[in-house]
Amino acid sequence: MFALPLTEHAELRPLDPWRAEEFLAHLDRAREHITPWVSPLFAASDVAGARALLQRYADRWSRDSGGIWGIWLEGTLVGGVLFVSFDPALGVCEAGCWLEPAAEGRGLVTRAIEQIIGWAVKERGIQRVEWRTNARNTRSINAAKRLGMSLDGTLRQAYPGDGGRIDIQVWSVLAEEWRAREAQVTAERAGSAS
């Protein structure tokens, strides 16, 4: 099994279907916090639903059309990142994330998304990475900004929601922008480590 270090106490690992019980326990801790922002299909409420969700992403991974990874902090699953969609033929993918409140403010989402976007751009030749979010989700919008993404526009009333139709913002970063950002971040982190 692989694990990529994100910080001294956190790592990124595949979120496979056999982790359904652990994933459900995590969702139960995060449910109230993430439910306003994630698809109802994502908020599994039992082990069978959690396993089915993880299996859908495992199937997407096997078809080269998506994937999901968990963020573990001190051995506990606290969130994750995913490719909602992934199309290497078009060179376009959509990335996303979620996180428990207790794990916020540590840079975990930024570092985890950096890992998967870097892989997509360098290894798979992805040219455009999208980030779609509810226009009211300030945490997600701030994550897109930290990742160097630009706001492409707003899809007005794109989806039904509890309080009416939801506006979706579309953010993106292009491969050449990502490579420039990656070089700058690497230099900054090297400078702060010395």
Provide a descriptive summary of the structure in words.
The chain has 194 residues and is α+β, with helices and mostly antiparallel strands. The chain has one domain: 3-Layer(aba) Sandwich (Aminopeptidase), CATH 3.40.630.30. It is 39% helix and 33% strand. The protein has five helices and eight strands. The protein has helices spanning 20-34, 47-62, 108-124, 138-146, 175-193, and strands at 4-5, 10-14, 67-73, 76-87, 92-99, 128-134, 150-161, 164-174. The chain has an eight-stranded mixed beta sheet with strand order 1-2-3-4-5-6-8-7, sandwiched between helices. Strand 1 (4-5) and strand 2 form a beta hairpin. Helix 3 (108-124) crosses helix 5 (175-193). The two termini are 32 Å apart. One of its GO terms (cellular component) is cytoplasm. This is RimJ/RimL family protein N-acetyltransferase.
